[in-house]
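Can't paste images in this forum, so I'm doing it all in text. The chain is below; anyone willing to post the predicted structure tokens underneath?
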Amino acid sequence: MVHQNRSKRFFNVGATAIFLAVVAMHAAHADTTVYKYTGPNGVTVFSQSLPENYRPAAVTTITIKTLPVEQQRAAIRMMDAMQNQVDTRIKKQRSELDKADREINVAITNLQQAESDLQSGSVPTGGDRIGKVGGGTRLRESYFLRVEKLQRAVDHAKAILDQAYRKRNNLR
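Text version of the structure:
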């Protein structure tokens, strides 16, 4: 519980600094007023307009020109650091998605090969037949075992492809 409160406070301080830095950059030559209040869900809100249920005691008015230069610079540095973190996360996600796409391509190729092997292995050859007394032939057990093994390879390749698709979809 204490850890959650600390992270919430850090987020509120960070969000405050970021918001004020953004507003300060956009309002460098203007005397912009920002209103700070706690929203219905307990989250601190910064807005350039007053809330619907305006109560003077519950709203803090911030004038951008009153923000010290050190705080503006600190907010800008924090925004840069956060942007770098976002860029790093995006690059990592892109790399993971590329890897997942490569795995899907390999799985598709393996499935196509397994299906091709099943198709060609399903055609009986001369050694797959055994003669019967009445002059006809029947397929040997080795043929059925081979086809069953090839079908299991296709099923396995499909399962790997499905798993690769799920992995990629989870990354999105």
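Helices lie at 2-26, 69-121, 141-171. The first strand starts at residue 33 and ends at 38.
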